[in-house]
Each structure stands twice: as C-alpha cells, then as structure tokens.
Write a structure and sequence with these properties.
By secondary structure, the chain is of the alpha/beta class. It folds into two domains: 163 residues, Rossmann fold, CATH 3.40.50.300; 31 residues. The protein is 42% helix and 14% strand. The protein is built from eight helices and six strands, in the order βαβαβααβαβαβαα. Strands 1-6-2-5-4-3 form a six-stranded parallel sheet, sandwiched between helices. Helix 5 links the parallel strand 4 and strand 5. Helix 1 packs across helix 2.
Length: 271
C-alpha cells in the first residue's frame, strides 16, 4: 500500500439528483474504486450529519451491489468492534476471550466473502479513539477494503496515527448544498460588505472628532453671557433709564404725592 496519499476535493450530489445515463454518482465511483484492489480510503466531509449520512447511505447501496458490506460506528470501543464484526460475519462469539474473538474474525476475513470482497465502512471516524484506529490498522492486514468516513478533523487525527501509512486515497467531499462557484461568491460578498462597512466607519471617525473640537473651540471663543440676578437689580445704574424708557399708555394717569400740600380750612363766611 502507498505510504503517501494526497487529498482531493470532489463534489457530492445525492443519487436522487438528475444524472445522465452515462454519468456515475460519486458513491458509484468510490464503489468501483474499491473493487480494483485492497486499500484504505479516507472520506472527509463537513459537519452536516444529515448530508454525511446521506452519502454513507448512497455508498452502502453502491458497494453492496458487488461486495459484502460491514459497518461500524464511532460509539464502539476495541472489544465491541470485534463483537460487531463477528455478528455481521456470522462468527460465534460465546465463551471467547477478546484475543480469541479477534483471531476468529481475522480467519473469517481471510476466507471468501459471500459477494465480491469485504468492505468495512467506518462511520464517524473522526471520533475514533487511538486504540480503535490501531485495531483498524491491524484489520488492514487482511484482504478487506476499509473506508473511514468522518468530519475534516479526521485528516489531522490520522496524521498522528500509524494507520496513516496504510491510507491509499484521501477524498475531501464538498457536501455543501451550494455549488462551489456560488458558495465562493457568497463568501466574497460577505467579506466585501464587512470591509466596506469598516472603511466607512473609519472614514467618518475623524470627521466626528473634528466636529466635536470645532464645537468646543466655538464655546471658548465666545464671550460669556451673564444674566443679572434679581437681587442685584437696585444696584444697577441703568435702572431709572430702564423705567423711564417704558412705553407710554393711551391715558396719562398722574399720581402725585407731596407732603407740602395741606388741606385748606373751610371759610366760615361762605356758609
């Protein structure tokens, strides 16, 4: 097996999508590739569990047309792995130690498969423990094709595992509902909008600062306007002028008070 495998990004569409009669779906292409030779294939997908499950369903159906399919999930530990494989291979697992059970499973994998060859599909492989990855590496010594399907962190997990030396192909599936050109256009449009908004905000900031400085400068340059207090009105020298400057009314009413004027006594001769 090859010790160096490059990662290829390929699009995936459900088998229910409109395909020409001469075209093969991605699941059928992978199934055809698995019939060529014994190998280990890594399929990395996005975080959409529904779409990843849809691809696994398509792949299971395509592989089962010519080969015998075995499936395991991420929730298994090492011992449960061989128990699950024994159940699918019709190997009795009663009264067997883990080592004996693993040996029985290996012997069965070395025999002819009911249809074609054996293909092990691993679901949620990005969650596999290091011990489970090591057990799968040991299974790769037998005539069985192995497909590890999980999220993109699976590629980093395998980089630290000895199973990475057995990998023949790494395929990164584009399971996005948007077409690739449209998806990149949307991403670029979002970033362009954010960049324009940030530039506009930075351009308005100096103008706002200059406006604040201008208002403060005008406030200091203007002479202070003092309002006279009512308590200081009698001391103001211009108060009589303000009183005399009051507008005249239509009727002049004279109010005279002079202490020198006294009332004259009445003349007795006139009575």
């Amino acid at each position: 097996m090859s010790s160096v495998a490059s990662t290829s990004v390929i699009p995936w569409l459900p088998t229910t999508s409109a395909l020409k009669e001469s075209e093969l779906s991605l699941a059928e292409q992978v199934a055809m590739m698995l019939r060529a030779e014994r190998q280990v294939v890594v399929l990395a997908t996005g975080r959409d569990m529904g779409r990843m499950g849809g691809f696994l369903a398509d792949l299971t159906h395509a592989v089962s047309q010519h080969d015998s399919v075995l499936r395991i999930k991420a929730a298994l530990d090492t011992q449960e792995l061989f128990v699950a494989l024994a159940g699918q291979l019709n190997v009795p697992a009663h009264d067997l130690s883990p080592m004996q059970l693993a040996s029985k499973v290996g012997e069965r994998l070395s025999e002819a498969a009911p249809r074609g060859g054996f293909v092990l599909l691993c679901e949620g492989a990005h969650l596999f423990s290091s011990a489970l990855l090591e057990s799968i590496r040991q299974l790769s010594n037998y005539p069985i094709n192995i497909v590890l399907c999980g999220h993109r962190p699976l590629l980093r997990r395998l980089a630290r595992s000895t199973l990475n030396q057995r990998v023949n192909y790494r395929l990164e599936l584009d399971t996005s509902p948007l077409a690739t050109p449209l998806k990149w256009f949307v991403v670029l449009a979002v970033f362009a909008g954010l960049a324009y908004a940030g530039t506009s905000w930075l351009a308005r900031k100096p103008a706002r600062e200059q406006e604040i400085i201008h208002r403060i400068s005008n406030t200091f340059d203007a002479a202070p306007q003092l309002q006279p207090s009512l308590a200081l009105l009698p001391a103001l020298p211009t108060l009589p002028a303000l009183i005399n400057a009051a507008p005249e009314t239509d009727q002049d009413i004279m109010l005279v008070f002079d202490p020198a004027l006294k009332r004259q006594p009445a003349d007795p001769a006139k009575h």
